[in-house]
Specification:
seven-stranded mixed beta sheet, single chain, about 1300 residues, alpha+beta, five-stranded mixed beta sheet, globular, 46 helices, C2H2-type domain-containing protein
């Protein structure tokens, strides 16, 4: 056998394995490939490799002397052919049986065959116990004509093996042992380099480890002396003690660790180790350049030409670099298929040309939330060889470091100074080239493109670093306002060209007073100094920031909010599904996080690019079954998902790009239809350029910043582990170069494309027929097949989730599929649901799903069980609230007929227009069904037994309470009417014509009893009235009087008042901060505690504001109103107001014409001029000048709205500078924008603080409640009259 990495060869596996460990293994790599060249297995430990060699490549023990129990065996299932004993051959067959291959009995005149190892051994023991080699089939074993022939073969073979062993030993002693010492020293140095560059152990810690190990080994020397003496005495060897000491000293001297790390060793100190690393590993040292020597402002540069030279000296790297592989005609598969590569005169059409890709970005090495944020912010420039295929250049050690500088200093001194050393090497590469010895010529190259986020690309390219300016796009001359109405595909926006850009730069240089021309503010330093690079052809878009951190999180937020508002699912349910979804493989690492509660306000779901990609890709599996296909918001998300799949594709045709262009256009139109008031982001505009940009740059996923940004994590970890901030730039660059040198010192710079650990080689004849046919169609000459349960190809793991578990069962013939399922569940201990399939002999044993037990074959059946995978434990959407987490219904199990549970902390719906009669117990439902049939056929009414009546009333009371704790008589009557309408047999004889009067009375008393039960159980809504019932009128009860849905909810499950008080305290502290955290301010969890204080204690507004300051934010007022009433305050109020405004004005003008209201004309005129001002005893709305103090105007004002105008504007429509809400003489909210918003906040606060309507304006607020917001059905006569007139207008 020959070594797969060099020319060394040997017949023994052990010798070859030792050779590999000595010459080709590197510490820290954890990669042990099989020593057989034709085997693809790679292992992480030597133990796994040895196990593999024993199983997959077994050694056959040769007979050492003549014997009669050996023969020449040949296996029918593999290439095994050797002289061995029968026991050894049967052991070989056992390996095939372990792979479930069918093995024929090797004895003659026996037709037995099996795939089970135990069955084979039992058969051999019973049928062929005393049979010898002469009884074997001649095709399996051939025995020589005489024993002497066999003896000759055996002895000669044995002597040959012994000669091989002697030759191997001499080979090791003469060759390997001479080189062993420097090789081991190099491996030890590689281990120390791995500790510093890969494991991030500091130099001081490394030195301590070396010193301590040396001390331990020195102390152990005395034990070595005594051990040598004991061994010599054991073998009766009396030698001088000085000889024993010499032996021990020699052993210590030959110890590679001691010899290298003692005082005079080459690896004993940090200084010596660094010298050794530079000399033996060829570390390319970073060079420190100075911005300003006085202020000690520096940056570091890693020489590009030296790094390129060290890379191209490796044969494996050179093989992947030249020549550039041609793309498939008609497809875009790499940057070399793009138009911009084809017009580059230096690199196009040349076999030995280098195309480089740069990346620039800023990143924090310190805690971005700590006191050192921005202090250690670093600007990094990386580069990569684009000649490599994407799977090779995506490795982090394939991405090389060029420049590191502090971001603040780079901004001060500019890119011209920062890029100067890099540009010097790039100019040399463009004109002189780099001599490559293996090729024998100079290789020239240039920068093909620069990857960066939009801000970084604009900064380096010389465009304006703002996306709110007129000319914000680096691809065309579109203006910010025009992108809202015009598509890129319409061709109205002129595309930027090199000629046009050069003209803009010339105009800038010609005038000192022009700051920008068409968005260009400066000349790019790369274009200025490089002959074959241009800004227009060198800055591709970044899919990472445009799509995954731009368009996707925004549109997800908008669409999910719309789907939640449509009640397809709830906010809590969506988060529950996201958390419980069964993610696999890389999705486990990139699993989406919980969507924040403020996503609808921020209009983004947050998350990083990986998480958003996983969310948009898996969302159809999560909630797709809950949303109708014709829902436009859902169609918008599905269109976006298709666009993403196309954009990130690594292979695109011209037809695909035309389809992508059409898809983006359709998506834009659908976005406008679904969200007419939303504006397009600049990133939406960049997305419209993608089809054309793919034609120019090739697949955009090859040039995005995702892999480059992953490089930042290495530097962050170095700083985190070393804690070195003295000169972080030099430290980071030095550690990085050590890591690159360590990678270059390994056997392979690139990872093996295929990585397999467990492999089984079987004959094609032993493979399943369907698999054999498929393989033969692809590889007709293949005789054996390698099977593995998992394999990694270019970093992607492919594996079998659940290998077949074959079991044999003997059971009586079942009468039905259900009975068979029950038997299988019991016998096989199966949990969960499953589907049964069987092999149908009528269809060539293809698998068919079992629906009828008669379909099974009569004699015996082969079944396959498929488990039904439940993607997520989804709770019914009616159980969960949209925006609250403080409900007990997350874990409640409720019947489908009842949308709410009486134990839920919050109700979710208002009283329905048609009361849904719940389902009763199973026996009651059966009896009611039979009674309804008897009533329809015979007219026989049902005499309701007591137990049935109690069950019906109990269930009705639970359902009624899920909507209201104190229903009105009219509402109870509707419940009774719905009951007898669904079950006519329940009409009470002798009752009124409807037959529900008796049920109404019974239900009324049942509700009183049910409330008493809840009061005894500690229900907050009932307990609050425990002490006020005695001697109190009905009107004094603390209960909802304005159709509040959640008037006084119970505390969330698992939280007591002490924990809720801690939550309240944290909210109170957060309000004191300048930059508020909306997550902490969110008052959902403490809703029940707040309502208890407000309803039960009835504190002053000032007290509430002191204890609950977070409640008096605009977002929280709306959220609190939603928690109480399950109605969106703003959208409902504004929509209804728009619908009724015309009717109200028509009514007012009609009244004014009748002359009944003298001041109505004046009010209408003031309304038209927007200068309305009125005052009453309870509510005041007045206009103030901004020079006036608000304090005097809030006195004696129980409820009010104050508007402050600009005193300098004396026109008919003064500018409003502030609008405030006053409660109990205190300004509780200000800066509300306009009167409409202030009135909505005032109305929301009346509900949130449980304040009564002002007596003088009670009808006004009642009209807003019951007409505008549709809260409550029954109205006073005056409001009902107004409502009727509005409907008539």
């Amino acid at each position: 056998m020959q070594c797969r990495y060099c020319k060394f060869s040997h017949s023994q596996q052990d010798i070859l394995l030792k050779h590999y460990r000595l010459h080709h293994w590197q510490a820290g790599k954890g990669s042990f490939p099989c020593i057989h060249p034709d085997c693809v297995c790679i292992f992480t430990t030597t133990g796994a490799l040895k196990t593999h060699l024993w199983r997959a490549h077994p050694k056959v023990d040769r007979p050492s002397s003549a014997c009669t129990d050996h023969g020449s065996f040949r296996c029918e299932l593999c290439d095994f052919s050797d002289i061995c004993s029968l026991a050894q051959f049967l052991k070989h067959l056992g390996r095939h049986l372990q792979n479930h291959e069918r093995v024929n009995c090797p004895f003659s005149n026996c037709d037995f065959s099996t795939t089970n190892n135990t069955t084979f051994r039992v058969h051999k023991s019973r049928k062929h116990r005393n049979q010898s080699l002469n009884n074997l089939c001649t095709s399996v074993c051939s025995v020589g004509s005489t024993d002497n022939d066999l003896d000759t073969v055996s002895v000669s073979q044995s002597l040959s093996d012994q000669a091989d062993d002697i030759q191997a030993d001499s080979h090791i002693s003469d060759s390997d042992l001479e080189e062993c010492e420097p090789v081991l020293e190099h491996k030890l140095a590689a281990l120390f380099m791995c500790m510093q560059s890969q494991l991030h152990v500091s130099q001081s810690a490394s030195q301590q480890i070396i010193d301590h190990v040396n001390d331990i080994l020195s102390v152990a020397n005395s034990n070595t002396l005594s051990s040598i003496q004991n061994i010599l005495l054991k073998h009766n060897c009396n030698v001088n003690e000085s000889i024993v000491a010499d032996i021990a000293a020699t052993l210590q001297k030959t110890n590679p660790f001691l010899s290298a790390t003692t005082d005079k060793g080459p690896l004993s100190t940090n200084y010596k180790r660094n010298i050794y690393f530079k000399d033996k590993f060829g570390i390319i040292e970073p060079v420190e350049y100075v911005f300003n020597r006085v202020q000690n402002h520096t940056f570091v540069y890693v020489p590009l030409l030296k790094t390129l030279k060290s890379l191209l000296e490796r044969p494996d790297v050179l093989e992947k670099t030249f020549p550039v592989k041609e793309g498939t005609l008609g497809f875009y598969t790499s940057p070399f298929d793009g138009q911009y590569f084809k017009v580059n005169k230096l690199v196009n059409g040349q076999d030995f040309r280098l195309s480089l890709g740069l990346f620039i970005d800023d990143f924090e090495i310190a805690n971005p939330l700590g006191t050192s944020r921005k202090k250690h912010k670093i600007t990094a420039v990386y580069w990569v060889i684009l000649n490599w295929e994407s799977q090779y250049r995506s490795s982090l050690h394939s991405i090389q470091l060029a420049l590191l500088g502090k971001s603040s200093e780079v901004r001060v001194y500019g890119y011209e100074s920062f890029f100067e050393p890099l540009l010097h090497d790039l100019r040399s590469l463009e004109h002189e080239g780099l001599y490559v010895e293996q090729i024998g010529e100079n290789v020239r190259g240039t920068v093909l493109n620069v990857s960066a986020d939009n801000l970084g690309a604009h900064g380096l390219a010389g465009f304006q670093e703002s996306f709110c300016v007129e000319k914000f796009c680096r691809f065309c001359l579109a203006s910010l306002k025009d992108i809202q109405t015009t598509e890129v595909r319409q061709g109205i926006f002129p595309l930027r060209s090199p000629e046009q850009h050069n003209q803009c730069v010339a105009e800038l240089k010609s005038s000192e007073f022009v700051t920008n021309v068409h968005g260009v503010k400066a000349e790019c330093v790369l274009q200025k100094h490089l002959s074959f690079f241009h800004v227009i052809t060198g800055f591709p878009p970044d899919v990472l920031h445009d799509l995954f951190e731009g368009v996707i999180p925004r549109e997800l937020a908008l669409c999910l909010q719309k789907l939640i508002s449509a009640k397809y699912f709830t906010f809590d349910q969506l988060n529950s599904i996201i958390q419980s979804f069964p993610y696999l493989y890389s999705d486990k690492v990139n699993r989406p996080q919980r969507i924040p509660k403020t996503f609808h306000l921020k209009k983004t779901v947050g998350g990083n690019a990986h998480e958003n990609w996983a969310l948009i890709r898996l969302l159809p599996l999560m909630v797709g079954g809950m949303v109708p296909e014709d829902e436009k918001a859902w169609q918008l998300l599905m269109d976006l998902k298709d666009i993403v799949e196309l954009v990130v594709s690594s292979r695109l045709s011209e037809e695909s790009l035309c389809y992508l262009e059409s898809k983006i256009s359709d998506h834009r139109q659908l976005f406008t239809d679904v969200f007419p008031n939303e504006r397009f982001l600049p990133k939406h505009h960049y997305l419209e350029h993608y089809p054309n940009l793919i034609r120019c740059f090739g697949p955009l996923a090859d040039l995005w910043t995702m892999r480059f940004e992953a490089k930042h994590s290495y530097f962050k970890r170095v700083v985190h582990d070393t804690r070195n901030f003295k000169n972080p730039l030099k430290t980071l660059a030095s550690r990085h170069q050590s890591m690159i040198a360590f990678a270059l010192d390994s056997q392979h710079f690139f990872k093996a494309p295929l990585h397999v650990e467990k492999l089984k080689v079987v004959k094609m004849s032993a493979v399943e027929p369907r698999l054999r046919t498929a393989v033969k169609n692809k590889y007709p000459n293949l005789s054996s097949l390698s099977l593995a349960t998992n394999a990694t190809l270019f970093g992607t793991l492919y594996m079998i989730l659940s290998p077949d578990n074959i079991r044999k069962l003997s059971i009586p013939t079942p009468s039905s599929v259900e009975e068979l399922s029950a038997v299988l569940r019991e016998k096989l201990q199966i949990m969960g649901n499953f589907v049964i399939q069987y092999e149908d002999p009528d269809f060539n044993n293809e698998l068919c799903t079992l629906h009828d037990i008669t379909e099974l074959p009569k004699e015996k059946a082969t079944l396959r069980i498929h488990w039904e995978v439940v993607l997520s434990p989804v709770v019914d959407d009616a159980h969960l609230s949209d925006f609250t987490l403080d409900t007990a219904s997350l874990t409640s199990t409720q019947s489908p007929s009842s949308p709410h549970s009486p134990l839920s902390a919050c109700r979710l719906e208002q009283w329905p227009s048609m009361f849904p009669v719940p389902s009763f117990s199973y026996d009651v439902e059966l009896r009611l069904k039979k009674a309804n049939e008897d009533l329809q056929e015979n007219g026989t009414a049902l005499i309701v037994p007591r137990d049935m009546k109690m069950n019906i009333l109990e269930k009705l009371a639970e359902t009624v309470y899920s909507y209201k704790a104190y229903p009105k008589d009219s509402e109870i009557e509707k419940v009774a009417s719905a009951l007898v309408e669904k079950h006519p047999c329940l009409k009470a004889p002798g009752s009124d014509t409807t037959g529900c009067e008796a049920w109404k009375i019974s239900l009324k008393f049942k509700m009183a009893n049910y409330r008493q039960k809840l009061r005894n159980a500690g229900c907050s809504e009932m307990v609050v009235n425990t002490h006020s019932r005695q001697g109190s009128s009905r009107g004094s009860l603390k209960r909802p009087r304005r159709s509040e849905l959640n008037f006084l909810p119970d505390h969330p499950v698992g939280l007591d008042e002490e924990e809720l008080e801690r939550e309240r305290s944290s909210m109170e502290e957060e309000v004191k901060k300048r930059h508020l955290s909306l997550t902490i301010l969110n008052a959902m969890t403490t809703f029940s505690l707040r309502r208890k204080e407000i309803v039960q204690d009835q504190p002053l507004v000032s007290t509430i504001k002191q204890r609950w300051p977070g409640l008096f934010f605009e977002e929280e007022v709306c959220a609190e109103f939603f928690r109480i009433n399950r109605i969106d305050l703003k959208s409902t109020f504004l929509t209804s107001l728009d619908n009724h405004t015309q009717g109200l004005l028509t009514m007012y003008r009609a009244k004014a014409r009748q002359g009944r209201w003298n001041n109505l004309y004046k009010l209408l005129e003031e309304l038209d001029s927007q200068t309305l001002c009125f005052q009453s005893d309870s509510v005041i709305y007045c206009v103030l000048q901004n020079t006036e103090a608000l304090g005097p105007h809030t006195q004696a004002m129980k409820i009010g709205i104050l508007e402050v105008t600009d005193s300098t504007n004396s026109g008919p429509h003064p500018t409003v500078v502030n609008v405030a809400v006053v409660l109990e003489e205190e300004v509780v909210m200000d800066n509300l924008g306009d009167f409409t918003n202030a009135f909505m906040m005032l109305f929301g606060l009346l509900y949130a603080l449980n304040m009564e309507y002002p007596k003088d304006l009670r009808y006004t607020f009642e009209a807003v409640q019951k007409i505008i917001l549709n809260l409550g059905k029954e109205c006073t006569a005056r409001i009902q009259s107004l409502k009727n007139k509005l409907l008539q207008v």
